[in-house]
Every structure is written in structure tokens, then in C-alpha cells.
Specification:
The chain is an alpha/beta fold. It is 30% helix and 21% strand. The strands form four sheets. Strands 1, 2, 6, 7, 8, 9, 18 and 19 form an eight-stranded mixed β-sheet that branches. A hairpin with a 2-residue loop joins strand 8 and strand 9. Helix 1 packs parallel to helix 13 and helix 3 packs across helix 4. The chain starts with a strand and ends with a helix.
């Protein structure tokens, strides 16, 4: 049956590499199978944020935060559709995981206010640096083997009904490896699978596809064959904030609306509360006429740009020709081909409401979630970016418990099978909090290993 390991990990993104580094620290013999030529997957395409609370970076900024506040925000953003036990497990392990990541060489640069958080809690990383630091931590142990270009085809159970055999193709050959402690699926979602998207999320047909090219849902199929139950598919949503050119080599995006911009359709009318989750904004954007929407802002918002930040480097987008600029609202409207009088009326109505303390049309009272205070848009020059919805990550998948064990339809663990990262459902619920995807990948990747290695003594 080929070689035997304590643990086999399928996928080498954030979840898989955190799991590999955790297993390496415990001296376990591990095989990591990655079907692409390089590590990272969709983790490399992320917005670079990880959601942690009570960290040294927050303390340096005088931000009062803690796990309870983080958990409460997650449940609020998920609209009560999250599995509370999963979110509570995130809260219990989040700070120690942040400190563990730092100990493994992952560099955190600063803290930003991002979607769904009541305080600045988006801890910024450089994904490539984080991925390579975790890889080095795992590979340096000498107990972890990596195979790239290795496509897993099927999982099989042993005579005791435990998932233990992995059949994969590598170098033109079909191989089988055995896992004594378990198989951990960290293979991502299905944002690149037209078949699965058409079956589970036909309402997202208008969203551009920009997820990791290997994210075609093969891990979900592998788990389903072993009896895994699926979660959260009714809540699948695209991500708002990308320039339409993001389906090319450059994934350009801007979330100027979380700094105070408004969002309009082709008729220059607002259609949403700009402070809510960009997943929820995306749902509204997809049903606008011809799918055309713009972010509109002024110099005061422009001055809040963050150089080098994936979401807030507005000047870079201007240099790339993706943001339009004009000295007056009328000229800006002409450039982006929306009705000038209506754009002026929309901005004037918004400014009047904000100055009076409440947005009468959509109830906006903050910049993002419960944080920040909107300001009128009136300081020339004015800016616009055509913005669309993208399928970057799916955030729906197999059912898991707080120990990262995959569950069947009767809420029972499937022996020997674990899942972490984007493949796991039940965590986000009906909304999405920025940074929680990479955060849950790291946290539950480690938890899965800790659970698996306790199930059977490492030899």
C-alpha cells in the first residue's frame, strides 16, 4: 500500500502549512500533497488580513480588544447562522495561534479597521512571506515530506472503517499512501469550478472568477464520498470591491467605501448600506442594472489610503489607470457615463443625512460594522472606480466539529477524516468577517493535527 505516515495533509495553503508545522513540532511523520506546482493556493490571493484580538500590535495602538468581542462580532456578522461552537473555538485559540505564527516567523505589519469588526482588528501579513515561513518551519524538521504536482483521486477506509488510505497521481504514476492517525483535507473551495458553482450558486453567474486555479472542489468530493455532510451552501456570496480587470493577472481591488466612499449603480443611485459586509454588498451589486456599480469618493477619503495595502492603496490604482479623477462631480459623472444631475443629487442627499446624524435611505451610521463615523463627500477632486463582484473564495463545505473532525449527516465524526480552511463549512454563516478565513485556516489547521495525534499515539 505504499509508504505509511502518521498524518497525510491534502493541500498546502495556509491551513495545510500550519498543520504541517504543528505536526512537525510534535515529531510526527507527515506527507503533504499539493496538486499545484507551488504552495499557497487561494491564501496568496487573500486580502492579507488575519482576525486576531488582544494582540501586542493592538496594545501598541491603544486598542482595547479581546476574544469575547471578536466572537460576538463574528456571530453578529454571520447573522446567527454560524455554528457557535466553531466560533467559540476560534475565540479560545486565536491569541495563542497569533503568537504561534509569530514564533514560526510570520510577520505582522499593522492593524487596520476592516469589514465586520467593531474595532481595528485586521492584522496585515504578506501572504507569500507567511506561506514560506510556515513551509520552512515544517520542512526544517526532517519529518515532513512534500510532494507538489500530486493530485489526490480517492480516499479509502481500512478494515475498521477508518479513513486511512490516500490514492494520488504523481509524476505520471498512481500511488497509495497510508495515514495511521488520519487524513486532513486542506484543499480549499470551489471558486474555479463552473460545474459546482452552477449547481450550488447559480445566482453568482455574474461574478468574475479569480480564486486559486486549483480550487475546483475536489476535496469536497473526496469527503462526500466518505459520507461528509455539507454546510452553508445557501449562503454562498461573491466578494465586492474588485475592479473588472481583476479576472486578469492583476487582482486589483479597493474598499474605499470602508473609508467613507458611497456606492452607486449606472443611474447614479445608491443601493446599499456601505458599512455592511462586502459579501452582502456583493449580493446587492449583482442585481443592479447591467451589473454596473461604482465607488465614489473625495480627496478626504483619498488621503486615508494606505500605501502597499491590498485593499487601501488608492494611489497605486490611480497610477494603474483604474480610478477616475475629476475636479467636479459633473465632470466625474461625464467620465463614468452616469447622469450628472442624479449623481449630484445622490451626493447632496447623502451629505445632508450624514451631517444630520443618520443616513435616511439605508441607515448607514458607521464606516464598517460598528466602527468609524462617515463624513460628507465634498472635498475636490472627486474619484470613481468601477467595481464588481468576484468569486475569490466559497466559504461553504464539509461539516466539522470544533476538533476539526469531519461529520456525517447524523453529526457523527467520520473516523480518520479531518478538514480545515476554506473546505470547512459551518463557520461563517450568512456573512463574512474580513480576516476570519486565514484566521480559521491557521487555527483549525493546528487543532486538526492536535486532535489526530491524540487519537492514536505517534509511533
Amino acid at each position: 500500500m505504499g509508504e505509511t505516515y502518521n498524518l497525510i495533509i491534502v493541500g498546502a495553503g495556509m491551513a495545510g502549512l500550519c498543520a504541517a508545522a504543528e505536526a512537525a513540532a510534535q515529531g510526527a511523520a507527515v506527507l503533504v500533497l499539493e496538486k499545484e506546482a507551488d504552495f499557497g493556493g487561494s491564501s496568496l490571493l487573500s486580502g492579507r488580513y488575519m482576525a486576531f484580538a488582544g494582540t501586542d500590535l493592538q496594545q501598541q495602538e491603544g486598542i482595547n480588544d479581546g476574544s469575547r468581542f471578536l466572537v460576538d462580532d463574528m456571530l453578529a456578522v454571520g447573522q446567527g447562522k454560524n455554528e457557535t461552537e466553531l466560533v467559540e473555538a476560534y475565540g479560545e485559540h486565536q491569541l495563542e495561534t497569533y503568537e504561534w505564527l509569530v514564533s514560526k516567523g510570520v510577520e505582522f505589519h499593522k492593524v487596520q479597521a476592516v469589514s465586520g469588526h467593531s474595532v481595528p482588528r485586521g492584522h496585515t501579513i504578506t501572504p507569500k512571506q507567511a506561506i514560506m515561513a510556515l513551509y520552512r518551519a515544517a520542512a526544517g524538521s526532517g519529518t515532513v515530506s512534500f510532494k507538489t504536482g500530486a493530485s489526490v483521486k480517492r480516499l479509502r477506509k481500512d478494515e475498521n472503517g477508518r479513513v486511512s488510505h490516500v490514492i494520488f497521481e504523481h509524476g505520471g504514476q498512481t500511488e497509495t499512501a497510508t495515514a495511521e492517525n488520519g487524513v486532513l483535507l486542506t484543499s480549499g473551495g470551489f471558486s474555479r469550478s463552473e460545474d459546482l458553482l452552477q449547481n450550488f450558486a447559480p445566482h453568482l453567474s455574474g461574478a468574475i472568477r479569480i480564486g486559486g486555479k486549483g480550487n475546483v472542489g475536489d476535496g469536497i468530493k473526496l469527503a462526500s464520498e466518505q459520507g461528509a455532510w455539507l454546510r452553508d451552501f445557501p449562503y454562498l456570496k461573491g466578494t465586492y470591491g474588485f475592479h473588472p480587470s481583476a479576472d486578469g493577472p492583476r487582482k486589483s481591488q479597493a474598499l474605499a467605501f470602508y473609508k467613507g466612499a458611497i456606492i452607486i449603480n449606472k443611474f447614479a443611485e445608491r443601493f446599499v448600506n456601505e458599512s455592511i459586509s462586502y459579501k452582502l454588498i456583493g449580493t446587492e451589486a449583482l442585481v443592479q442594472p447591467d451589473g454596473i456599480t461604482y465607488q465614489i469618493w473625495d480627496q478626504a477619503v483619498m488621503d486615508q489610503g494606505v500605501p502597499g495595502d491590498a485593499l487601501y492603496d488608492f494611489e497605486k490604482l490611480v497610477a494603474l489607470g483604474l480610478i477616475e479623477q475629476a475636479d467636479s462631480v459633473e465632470i466625474l459623472a461625464e467620465i463614468i457615463e452616469v447622469p450628472a444631475e442624479q449623481l449630484k443629487a445622490t451626493i447632496n442627499e447623502y451629505n445632508r443625512d450624514i451631517q444630520n446624524g443618520r443616513d435616511q435611505k439605508f441607515g448607514r451610521s458607521t464606516l464598517t460594522h460598528y466602527f468609524g463615523t462617515p463624513a460628507p463627500i465634498g472635498n475636490a477632486p472627486f474619484y470613481a472606480m468601477r467595481t464588481t463582484v468576484a468569486m475569490l473564495a466559497t466559504y461553504a463545505g464539509v461539516s466539522v466539529d470544533p476538533s476539526a473532525q469531519v461529520l456525517n449527516a447524523f453529526n457523527e465524526p467520520i473516523e480518520g477524516l479531518y478538514a480545515a480552511g476554506e473546505i470547512a463549512g459551518g463557520f461563517h454563516g450568512a456573512g463574512y468577517m474580513t480576516g476570519s478565513s486565514l484566521g480559521k485556516a491557521a487555527i483549525f489547521g493546528r487543532i486538526a493535527v492536535q486532535t489526530a495525534l491524540k487519537k492514536q499515539a505517534v509511533l
